[in-house]
Amino acid sequence: MFGTGLFDGAADLLPWLVYGAPLLLIWLVRGRRRRAQHRRSLAALDESRSAGLSEPPSLHPLIDPSLCLGCGTCVTACPEGDVLGMVHGKARLVNPTHCIGHGACQEACPQDAISLVLGTENRPVAIPVTGPDFQTNVPGLFVAGEIAGMGLIRNAVEQGRQAVASIRTLPGIGAGSDLDLAIVGAGPAGLAASLAAQEAGLRYVTLEQDTLGGTVSHYPRGKIVMTRPVELPLVGPVRFAETTKEELLAFWRRVQGETRIRIRDRERVEKIDRADGGFAIDTTRGHYRARAVLLAIGRRGTPRKLGVPGEERPKVVYSLVDPEQYAGRRVLVVGGGDSAIEAALAISEQPRAAVALSYRGEAFSRAKPKNRERLQAAETVRALSVLLGSQVAEIRERDVVLDTDKGRLELPNDDVIVCAGGEVPTPFLQAAGIEIQQARQRRMR
Ligand SMILES: Cc1cc2nc3c(=O)[nH]c(=O)nc-3n(C[C@H](O)[C@H](O)[C@H](O)COP(=O)(O)OP(=O)(O)OC[C@H]3O[C@@H](n4cnc5c(N)ncnc54)[C@H](O)[C@@H]3O)c2cc1C
Questions:
Q1: Using CA atoms, how far apart are residues 246 and 393, in angstroms rounded to an integer?
Q2: Of all atoms in ligand 1, which is nearest to the CA of residue 216?
């Protein structure tokens, strides 16, 4: 009797052992993973906060914690990888400045707990007031793309195309001796607008302070670009979904060559005034008159210049795109923020590169603590010299001249990278008479 009872008990336990033990194991492993993810996310959140990088620049997810189930599908769905995290079992924006506003998190959320919004309570985003045709309060002055509030390549392309569709119906288009349209900016919005203007037979000019590509040309080398199929005027449907920065730029350059759209590179628009039912446009190279103006200027603004002799040399650039191109070169990086420090560090890792980092302040007080530590470590082991309290006085063909506390310093030099921040586009819009509104958590989709 006794022996049979024991046998019966073991038999009862068997299903628990067969099914229960693996479930228990899975539960334990999941719990461990969740705790590790929570720790990682908290660390990322703390780092963003302590570096003052706690506000998303543009479109971003707003997560309703009362609806979030903590399933983490939004975290995995984000194409940028490190933007969202899980804190105390709920999704959180842990790396706000890396958010591009793809909206993949919103689409993936099974609970509809995510909305895409523009601006935050602490940092509203200034956007022009426009009608559905993208016309601002200044008749004949239009905006499209990121400056109008909607980020992403596809939206910019779509808006550039639609804005030109509205512009071509304006009275006075096609008449008189002025251009019909001046397009400012040749990012995705300006490119699509230029193609649409060419297709519509408008007399237009596209003015770009840099070169074709806009923000895309400043992405890091090899960045994966997530986009969606779009219709490009004169080209037809373009079915890119996932590509690289280089492929996308090469495609746009091919389109520019084949369609012969007219883009005037390295010509910055400085002033737009109303004149005789149209506009007078002053640029760094000339003067134009046009019946309508489309601003497709994005939000990156214009890089702040040093204003020193020799700054116009081609060896001077305003952002680091590809550190590898500086192998074996003597580089001066100018600036005291994170982008300057990160550029100097990345170049110092290249073989035979020699980097000097010049900053007029006495300490890198604006930079992330982690970057300051990395800089100190790199100074001792690599070819990186830090010149605090120094200011660039002149940029010459083969060297640079710096003013320092100890007098003038001449450094042999091949390249200069200026990371001195940028001038935001809002004053430019206001000077043109455009009414601006402040978006605070405004729902966009
Ligand atoms: C790091 C990063 C990664 C991203 N990844 C993606 C992605 O994977 N997928 C995606 O869809 N989106 C992505 N985006 C967003 C996307 O790049 C932008 O939404 C898009 O480029 C906006 O296009 P735009 O034409 O409105 O402006 P921009 O691309 O910013 O172009 C504006 C142009 O106007 C020019 N300009 C400005 N002022 C003047 C002036 N006064 N005179 C003459 N020219 C002027 C500028 O030089 C620039 O070329 C990313 C953004 C960043 C920062």
A1: 35
A2: 17
